[in-house]
Amino acid sequence: xVQPSYHHLILAFLIPLTLSNAVVSARLxxxxxxxxxxxxxxxxxxxxxxxxxxxxxxxxxDGLANLKSYFQRFGYIPHxxxxxxxxxxxxxxxxxxxxxxxxxxxxxxxxxxAATLHQIVLPRCGVADIINGTTTMNAGKENRxxxxxxxxxxxxxxxxxLFPGMPRWPEGTEELTYAFFxxxxxxxxxxxxFAAAFARWAEVTSLTFRETAxxxxxxxxxxxxxxxxxxxxxxxxxxxxxxxAFSPTNGRFHLDAAEDWVVSGDVTRxxxxxxxxxxxxxxxxxxxxxxxxxxxxxxxVMFPTISSRRKKVVLADDxxxxxxxxxxxxxxxxxxxxxxxxxxxxxxAVSATSLLTFFAFAFSVFALL
Length: 369
Hints:
Elements: H1 6-18, E1 28-29, H2 64-73, H3 91-103, H4 114-120, E2 124-125, E3 130-131, E4 134-135, E5 175-180, H5 188-202, E6 208-211, E7 220-225, E8 241-245, E9 252-256, E10 260-262, E11 275-277, H6 278-290, H7 317-327, H8 352-368
Parallel strand pairs: 1-10, 2-8, 5-6, 5-7, 7-9, 10-11
Antiparallel strand pairs: 3-4, 8-9
Helix pairs in contact: 1-8, 5-6
Binding site for Ca(2+) 1: 259
Binding site for Zn(2+) 2: 125, 284, 288, 294, 302
Active site: 285
């Protein structure tokens, strides 16, 4: 067995400092039947917004400041005020709502009607819909910006969207490796879910994906974390932002450990209102890791929201066109998808088990300091 290097030991101690609220195990349910019947979940992170039904410009309502923070978080209000947001329904909030309604194919009224609020409170991806003041959706409509006087900066092709500057993995890349945060100690069943999610993208592109035991050496690094975990994008508990991933070639992919993740079984039949399908979220976030932004095509996996107890893993035509624009098509792709799990990397000098054991030891030593 290869002895852990001094470099690895230092990195092991740095992880708790940079990911101060990382958790050892996420809320992962092996299947829907394992959910406890007496478990009483709390409401979703944004359920209180339902109280704003019917609010419009000129109103003042307790809590509207929180809704403004929501819209700022996802890019609809470009700049925060020097102090806290007010509870006034002002012009900026109305403009944000209209843009949001346009992106999600709702009636553009600027009013917080029931349909708009129903969409707002759904669990969603933590990646913003509007980046650098430019909306990234609009279902194939012309490029738009937050300011009508500025020129569009986000590249939109058909319905799918790409990040500003169209970042992608380097030309000629054929294989990307991925690894899991050692502190999560994920089961083989969970790893197979991610393998299946990567396989869905590999089926339609020239890219392949391989799991590796080397977390620090992997192209893509996956982990379950809670709250403020050191990347400037804190998680907010059950049924808020489910996960987020960064554009190429950053490689970070984080999931909220507070969610009730269902690993296998029919999530639509779960008795738990807060059950979230792990593969559905993984497929979406991998799209971001490869360079896709959000789509306003509701059938696309790159649509920003997904209801609890819903499975959505099949790439839509919009997703396939977007990823093939970036990386070309798999020569074996015939227009239909059928997933197969990629081979795991078993050739690494240090096995995943030994690496996890080493990190567990390092963390325990750190706790005693």
